[in-house]
Amino acid sequence: MTTSNEEKFIHKKISRRDMLKLTGIGVAGVAIGASGLGGVMKAMGYDVFEPVADSTTASNKVNFYGKHQSGIVTPVQTNIYFASLDVLVTSKKELQALFQQWTPLIVRLMNGEAMVDVSTNSRVPTGDTGEAEGLDASNLSITIGVGPSLFDKLGMQHLKPAELKDLPHFPKDQLQKEYTGGDLCIQACADDPQVAFHAVRNLVRAASGKVEIKWSQAGFNSFPAGGGTPRNLFAFKDGTVNPAITDEKDLNEVVWVDKGWLKGGSYLIARKVQMHLETWDRTSLKDQEATFGRYRDSGAPFGKTKEFDDFDVEAKDEKGNYIMPDTSHVHLARKSGARILRRSYSYASGVMSNTGTHDAGLIFISFQKDPAQFTTIQNSLGRMDKMNEYITHRGSAVFACFPGVQKGSYLGEALFNAL
Amino acid sequence: MNNKAFLSVLVAGGILMAGCGNTEEVKKEDKPATEQAEQATKEVDLSAELSTYQQFALEQMDQFLLDTEKFVNLFKAGDIEGAKAAYAPARMYFERSEPIAESFGDLDPRIDGRLADIQEEGKGEEEWSGYHKLEYALWEENTTKGYEAVADQLLADTKELHALVQTVEVTPDLMITGAVDLLNEVSTSKITGEEEIYSHTDLYDFKANIEGAEKIFEILRSKLEAKDSSLVATLDEKFKAVDDLLAQHATANGGYVSYEELTEENTKALAAAVNQLGEPLSQMGIILE
User: Fold this and answer.
1) Which top EC class applies here (chain A) (predicted)?
2) Are A185 and A270 within 8 A, CB to CB?
3) Interchain contact B62–A (C-beta under 8 A)
4) Which residue among A56, B123, B166, B269 is least packed, with the fewest CB closer than 10 Å?
5) Cβ of A43 and B289 within 8 Å?
6) What is the value of ipTM here, to two decimals?
């Protein structure tokens, strides 16, 4: 009896398929299916590549269109949701379609609008997941980049810039594959954590079957009431020596790529750096300050009084000792001679299961015209950096972030035009 | 023969009841009056699909009862190996028709409850019954002794469920939500190995849940074709992706490997394929507009 009914069940499926084949419906369906997820997009109401304008009335709004992508020289927001994705698409055409689909959706999100207009059919899930409803744009910026593995996966090696490659191994690196690499990245920063998360969640959902999330990290930054540099979880000011985001000339030297399809873009380096808070917290203030080479309260370099005072790393006191210890983080970083634009956030993600300590640290993010700038600094820090005692690098990734987009164009168009 | 005649009467009844179900269900919806009226006038006629699904679910339930009886008989005869072999295949009928089987609040936990669920409700182990308790006896205790009453109770509960499902109203929502729920079952418990913690036969349930969802899709196929043929093509492609992945873990005798044999990469690939199927599957509600 079991067998006969089981057969009946299976047989029914087959005869149904045969019927569809005979009527030709099944065949037509398959032919249309070649265009991928078009059906779902239509059903969800995601318009495929119809330009959307930056809103002129939205409050707390960062513009999408411009010479450069947002989220690089945009004033740092309070929250980040950073996501590294792997692509499931297997052709350059599908990849291009993905960026074309994402472009207007990103503009909508940055306008503080829902992904799609409200549908009349409540019997299907909504095209926007809805948790940003009632919140404004919150200065949301979205930055999209492509990783080295993408070019290998889709047979575009000839367009992979020589600079775009995985970072070398650095002393004290303990990289875990669950926080390392990725074909694409979405950096969503906003002055509201839910707005940032909502953006990543919805872009990934809209690309179901085309991308899958590989790793992600939420982060936060808090600014003193009077403005100024935010402090990291070691309580030191982080990002003091950044180039000014208004200094076009300086940014051209440090941040913006000036050649090829990436012209106007920038390389993003993401490092998940665990900070051992328990050991740091039992370190004397004097030793903490010697680790950085700066005073904790003012942020001033050793021997100076104000945060932005310039300093000479080679300066010595009357006894012939370096004023700024030569094992300090700032001394070694400055000595490398290289510069980057830092845009880091702190994270606190629960407890390390193997040690019971805080799982907290820094989602270090920097932008540079060549990842070698970061490598030079990191090599200079090397084994000497006193900070090594208190941190472990757990994740690492490099992405080439596209240049900005003009209305009517889409993210990465220059790359696809170069194919 | 008798059984067949009995079924056709039920199916006819089912159509009538399904018709009632529709209007009632619209009334119940917490919507502004205008929207309600709009939806009611736009309601698509799915009576043929509903009765096809009802027939399918009732057949699965017939088979579930027969196979449960077989399993209980083997168990009570003390045939441990025989009962183990019959366990997972019998459960597949239940898992395939879960949208219907689940409609009865009390019976579902009595038949399919896990010890963890019972304890969560603040109940003791003595209140635990059904398939998973016998699973515990067979795989953990390697015995049938002392569990005869549990086996009898399972058969009695299954008979009660079988009698109750004959009256169930199949609505468009039950079918469409049911298909997604079947996938959600897979995503939340089967893929984590939390359904069959003693026998590790989770992949049987996994397969059955997918088949249950696929059946609903097949029944709605022509309605979906009319509305959005590329959605149908996408669903064909995504069901195939899940089925192909599952086939990699099939055994020569038509079953599946133990959940314990799956690597983290295997489970991640299966979970991703199910999620990629779930997203377009959740759009089947477009036929209701």
Assistant:
1) oxidoreductase
2) yes
3) yes
4) A56
5) no
6) 0.73
